Amino acid sequence: MSAEDRDENSQTQLARAYAALLARAGETQIEVRLDATRRACELLGDIHHAAPVITVTGTNGKTSTARMIDSIVSAHDLRVGRFTSPHLHSVTERISVDGGPVEAETFVRIHDEIAPYLDIVDAQLVAEGRGRLTFFEALTILAFAVFADAPVDVVVTEVGMGGEWDSTNVADAAVCVFTKIGLDHQKFLGDTLTEIAATKAGILNRSLDPSPAPEPVAVIAAQAEEAQTALDAEIEARDVHAVTEDRGFRLLDRQRAVDGQLITVQGVRDVYTDIFLPLHGLHQAHNAAVALVAAEAFLADEDKPLVLDTVADGLSRVTSPGRAELVRTGPAVVVDGAHNPDAAHVLAETVTEAFDFDYTVMVLAMFGDKDVHGVLEELHRRADAFVISQALSSRAMDTHELAEAVREWVDEDSVLEAPDLNAALMKAIDLTNRSGAQSPGIVVTGSLFTVAEARLLLGKED
Asked: Which residues form the Mur ligase central domain (predicted)?
């Protein structure tokens, strides 16, 4: 069989395995439980504690922070498995070993090996009058199985939603990381930062007996006062050791650099100076500080203190696709998956600071269940024009309805509509070409579905 035929067969088998996962309840059909995931992991030989775990929760910045932790720990000669969500182009992106997506062949092999065990748990759940394992629960089990098979030295997991009952919480993490907490998924998590923070603090719970990590360390990014107060109460109730940004560690300095920034971080154990981070924005500098301290906490337990040069080497390799990512020049096109007000605020600040656009076109496509006006409040001052389209999802907001919402914030003549994202990009490019600006730019945002499609259209699907 030729290499081309093998690749085609591999993709066919991957599509089959992915279809089997998609046949389960989707990611918006949440089951508030941990026991179902635990049953499957135990049947498979306790794969959920085959390696120590670092878990990342929060509202925004989780994926970037998880990728940074992965890079720093990997640079210190440990093999890392990373589980993040969602994916942009292929489901294999969610399960990473050695810094890259798991091979399609491995994904399919492990899926087929665990399928009979998933069927056993499904049958038990149905007999109890409960729903089968969901897509995300099954994918979490698959990830832990891949990591046990590799095997890896450490697992970095990103919580899908919340924390307390998220399927990733089946493992007792040695280090529990909290990125900034904001309002999102209120239907499931609550309408206040206090409620949301309390649910996310559930990653500090110990569900294994005996626990492989009975005394976790919490590493907490700078939070709004309400969220921090709630986290402080949860940490005190559990008697957990915590280090909090601006109390136990801090970002000391940052300077713009070509294709990124130089940062200096006061960690718990040392000061890490002039580290190049190839990502844009103040938020990514803070994410890097959190990631560095999380790695410090984990590697201290492993008796492997961080080395400045090794940290610098690790962070210099970080990528975060779809997060303030420059995917084209001439005109410049930046893609970012901002889908809530906090993320939109960060995007607006990053575009202003990192990209010297003197004329900006926002290409926007969002989901109907998001806070559209909260996002527009943050973005409208940074845009000279909007081109509105519709994301490729059943949850997508209608183009005309979204355009009407945008017209409540900006002049009607500065809002254009496009039937699809390709047409929207063409209109945006035409607007920049006709603007006469020295440095025009296009920002594509509204959801990761929007970003994924834009990356494909612009040839950046890798």
From this structure: 56-295
Global pTM value: 0.94
Distance CA 166, CA 294 (A): 21
Q: Band of the pLDDT at 388, cuts 50, 70, 90? A: very high
Please check whether residue 462 lies inside any domain of the structure.
no
Say which residue the tokens 């976790």 belong to.
216
67 and 100, same domain (yes or no): yes
In a domain, 158, yes or no: yes
If you search the block for the tokens 């990373």, which residue do you land on? 82
| Averaged pLDDT for residues 410-434 | 97
Residues 286 and 336 in one domain: no
Report yes or no on 438 lying in a domain. yes
The pLDDT, as a whole number, for residue 1 is 58
Task: Give kind and range of the element (H or E) at residue 86.
Answer: none
DSSP letter string, 159-226: -SSSSSSSGGGGS--SEEEE----S--HHHH-SSHHHHHHHHGGGG---SSS-S-SS-EEEE----HH
Whether residue 310 is found in the same domain as residue 162: yes
Both tokens assigned to 263: 């940062």
**Same-domain check for residues 38 and 151:** yes
Residues 369, 427, single domain; the answer is: yes
pLDDT band at 5 (very low <50, low <70, confident <90, very high): low
Q: Report the largest interatomic distance among the alpha carbons of the chain, rounded to a whole angstrom.
A: 67
Q: Is 28 inside a domain boundary?
A: yes
Q: Centre a 10 Å sphere on the Cβ of residue 253 and count the other Cβ atoms it contains.
A: 13
Domain finish residue from 290, 316, 342 = 316
Show the DSSP H helices in 317-361 as ranges.
341-354
- Is the same domain home to 236 and 349? no
β partners of residue 254: 263
Residues 341 and 389 in one domain: yes
- Whole-number average pLDDT of the chain: 94
What is the domain count for the chain?
Answer: 2
Q: What is the pLDDT of residue 182?
A: 86
Question: Of the given ranges (41-50, 177-186, 333-342, 359-368), which has the lowest mean pLDDT?
Answer: 177-186
* Mean of pLDDT values over 275-282: 96
**277/291 Cα distance (integer angstroms):** 12
Cα angle value 179/181/186 (rounded, 5°): 140
Residue 170, token pair as written in the block: 């089946």
Give the mean model confidence (pLDDT) for residues 7-12.
83
pLDDT band at 30, cuts 50/70/90? confident
333 shares its domain with 294: no
